[in-house]
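Input.
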Amino acid sequence: MAIRITDDCINCGACEPECPNNAIYEGGIQWRYRDGTSLSGQVDLGNGIMLDADAPHAPISTEYYYIVPSKCTECMGFHEEPQCAAVCPVDCCLPDPNHVESSEQLLAKKAFLHEGAPPAPGIIEVYLEDLERA
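Output.
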């Protein structure tokens, strides 16, 4: 399950540097898949779907920090717990019920983002959803 930042966020920025995937962005800032990952250029998601890792995407929030769900691995493979939640002074980094993923899916997502592995089955929809929002 990805983590989300609720509207209780006070824009302190404590979470952003803690994310090993660079999935957290300040409100109003564009995001890219290449940020904090090994992805670059055109990336094949399978079924003929290509992702431009270098392309900027519209912010998910303009009011407070946000997490890009398809880049969030809940810190699996890096830390024992999500670091954004661990450092948040107002406890606004919570599990996102709209993006439920197993430990195996989160580790496969990490491998895709950082190790050149193919995207995990079933995760392509999350990437497409993020791109549609952009």
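Residues 103-115 form the longest helix (13 residues).
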